[in-house]
Design brief:
Radius of gyration: 12 Å
CATH topology: Trna Endonuclease, Chain: A, domain 1
Distance between the termini: 27 Å
Helix content: 40-55%
Number of helices: 3
Number of domains: 1
Structural class: alpha+beta
Number of strands: 4
Largest sheet: 4 strands, mixed
Strand content: 15-25%
Order of helices and strands: HEEEHEH
Shape: globular
C-alpha cells in the first residue's frame, strides 16, 4: 500500500468519526508531520509512512520536539495501528 493510500484511509476514518483533520505542511520548516487531528480540545500530529517504512531522522526529531511541547505526536505505517491510536486518543 502506498503512503498516500494509507493517509486517505486515515482521513476517511477521521471524517466518519467527527475528528477534524488537516494536511499539515510548513514550507520553511522541513520534517513536520503529515497531519494534524483535532477533537474536543485534543490535538494529535500524525506522520504517515508506507508499510514497513520509518520516519527520517529529521522527522523523528520534529516529532520529539512536538512531544516535548506537551502535544501528542506519533507516526504509523499501517491502518490498524492508526485506527487504534485514534480510538484511544479521541474517545
Amino acid at each position: 500500500m502506498r503512503e498516500s493510500t494509507l493517509e486517505a484511509k486515515i482521513v476517511k476514518y477521521c471524517r466518519e468519526n467527527g475528528i477534524l483533520t488537516y494536511k499539515f505542511s510548513s514550507p520553511s520548516h522541513r520534517g513536520v508531520p503529515d497531519r494534524v487531528m483535532m477533537e474536543d480540545g485534543k490535538v494529535m500530529f500524525l506522520e504517515v509512512k508506507a508499510p514497513g517504512k520509518t520516519p527520517s531522522a529529521l522527522q523523528l526529531h520534529e516529532i520529539e520536539k512536538i512531544r516535548k511541547s506537551g502535544v501528542v505526536a506519533v507516526w504509523v505505517d499501517n491502518y490498524l495501528g492508526a485506527e487504534l491510536m485514534l480510538k484511544i486518543f479521541f474517545r
